[in-house]
Write a structure and sequence with these properties.
The complex is a heterodimer of chains A (476) and B (315). In chain A, 48% of the residues lie in helices and 13% in strands. The radius of gyration of chain A is 28 Å and the shape is globular. In chain A, 45% of the residues are buried. In chain A, strand 8 and strand 9 form a beta hairpin. By secondary structure, chain A is of the alpha/beta class. Chain A has two domains: 185 residues, D-Maltodextrin-Binding Protein, domain 2 (3-Layer(aba) Sandwich); 217 residues, Periplasmic binding protein-like II (D-Maltodextrin-Binding Protein, domain 2). Chain B folds into two domains: 51 residues; 225 residues, MetI-like (MetI-like fold, Orthogonal Bundle), CATH 1.10.3720.10. Helices cover 73% and strands 0% of the residues of chain B. The relative contact order of chain B is 0.12. The model of chain B has no long low-confidence stretch (mean pLDDT 91). Classes of the chains: A alpha/beta (476), B mainly alpha (315). At the A-B interface, helix 5, helix 14 and helix 21 of A face helix 6 and helix 13 of B.
Chain lengths: 476, 315
Amino acid sequence: MSAKLSRRKFLRVAAVGAAALLAASCQPKVVEVEKVVTKEVEKVVKETVIIAAEPAPKEPVTIQWMNWWGAAREPLMLEIIARFEEEFPHITVENQVQPWDNREQLAATAIASQAPPSLIMVSRVEAQMFAHEGLIVPIDDYIQAKGIDVYDVFYEGDINNCRWADHFWSYPLPSGGVDSSFWLYNKNLLRKSGLDPEAPPKTWQEVEEAIDATTVIKDGVLEVMGLEGVTGRFHSWLYCNDGKYYSDDSKQLLFNQPEGVETLEWMLKLISEKMGGIETYNAFGEGVTTMDADYAFYTDKLCFGPYNVSIFGHFKNIAPERFEDTDAWGTMLVPYNGNNSKAKPAGLSGFAFSWNQVIPKGLSKEVQDAAYEWLEYFGMRRAGGCWFLFEQARPSPVKACNENPEYYDANPYWEVVLQALAIDISVPVTPVQGQIADLVSEALEEVWFEVKTPKDALDWAYDQTQPILDKFWAEG
Amino acid sequence: MEARRAGYASDSRAGVSARLSSWRHRHRHWLGWLFISPWLIGFFWFDVLGLLLNLYLGFTGFTVGAKMPPWIGLANYREVFAGDHLIGKSFVNTIYYMGFSVPLMMITAFSLALILNAEIGGRGIFRTIYYLPSLVPVVASSIIWLLMLRTQGGMINQVLALVGIKAIPWLGRPEWAKPALILMSLWGFGGQMVIYLAGLQGIPRELYEAAEIDGASGWHKLARVTLPLMTPILFFNLIMGIIGSFQVFTSAFIMTDGGPLKATLFYMLHLYNNAFKYFKMGYASAMAVLLFLAILALTLAVNRSSGRWVYYAGA
């Protein structure tokens, strides 16, 4: 290095240096610049490194965020977007709230179009189908690059709702809790019936006694209902009887096993013997939802209600005084079949329906990266999804977010909710779950109307659905 | 020389004129085509191309996405006719719905049009009131009807209770669910009513005067003058009603989801489920082709019968 620098060599080095500087100003990746010049002159390299080390301004990127978080949630979303854009000034998020009608159609056509939005909110089974068809990108590389231990961050049930074919396609938000492992119960009705309001039933057998004590049927009309949500929840009840809907590898349907038949027989007994039959049962509270002030649970007309995680927000908004009155209602873990020694409380964090936000294929690298940044912010960050859910009185799928002390102040039964989230499981459904679920529902309806016995109905459903599943796996 | 030059010029002018005239003659329809081209382009792009693509997709295992779907021949059609246990039920449900809703709608709309065509005070207000429901989106009216049809506390059962009729589980029993949706379909009679009103106002008054001179009663005037002259409009509404009722979807989608016991699983709802819930797009395309053929066949049959009962003046 002691040799003199000739004029020609100096000019050559200067030219290379200038080119390197120019390249460095355009390219944020310094490593490639080093490769060009390292062998030429050490000094130039050092200068280049210094210049390139300054953060190069990123190209502005706009992402479209197609979602169904309308109504009262839209201002919350806009607030999070503002926070995100402050932290990532080069990314602009267009909040594209869609109408709920024909949601499936909108999602499918958007993802299949030549110009899809950058991130789409879809149901779990839709995400699986889009992944199966190669229409969305997995986020494993991002997870790996950022060193995120998803099972440490999220509840196992929740993150598994975003997993399909050994890849992760989204972060969960909100927490699945489709049929979470908690129920709300009415202390007033238990007290009135001579039962202990502070000792809610733990087993199916105790629930039966409570239903007998609280249900009121007059002139064929159900005036006070013991338990709501029986007909649409066979899959949840099944897991409380140590049954399974799918095998762990998702290749075998197991709902018609003895546990399933026993579960369905018990459910039928509740409807036909305890609550006046399917017509009487269906007529109760028809057209009224948890978002209506005259909803039965808010007016002492309903004793037990299995709900999903959105109930607390609805309850708090619609009947705030009632919500504050912890003498009037309580939260309990879902009861299990006390006659089955293996059974224990079990809820579902996700069946066919829990939300995924997926990134379509075919986007530019910049847009895809920006979409991921938004997904991570919205899905994991305290100022993002955690805040969004807290404002709605919903739990978060991020474990740490639920440790927020304000949750304990806002919800008197927060401990029970956390216990429920920890034991909620994700059923390993497949992209053909839509067909399977409809056929099982068809069979169940025939049980409620006493057209078929529980065993015959479940066997018929199995005969119809297992070939669909076999065909799916056979076709790959 | 001058004369020859003038002759050339004259010949040249005549030639140009003749060529222009010939061009105009040959291309005399082009202007018309030009004017209808926006519609034509839309028709070919959105309808004809869509129809052809749908026809093609019916022979494929198309699910969702842009991948080239695999050709599976007649498998989808075989499944429609032999494999799908709900297709027959959905078709029968649709025919049942059509069989009741189309005539009921026509009778209701025509009767009200007759009343509102009479010389009564506040006629304009009544016409507006009766027409308004048809402007309400089906989604909104479905939600309203969902509340009105409740077994306990629903408005319809409350009215029935006044005359001593026990509460009917409108949407809770399979035998009542279809009648409930048919009843609801009458809500949108305003559109048909306006067409009937326009038709009624087009009937010359002299015909009624002549009938009155001949001693015709109100019934005779209706049966011998009004109805025959209204047959082209009845025919139009019949065709539109058949097409519309074959495509009944929204009310069942929102109010019953095809239940109870699949009593309201209409063909379009079944098709939609296959397409967007099960992602069996190829199968849904085959179903759509069959629906198209069914509607076409029925429309042609009604059209063929029209020679016997539709009166076209001067025809």
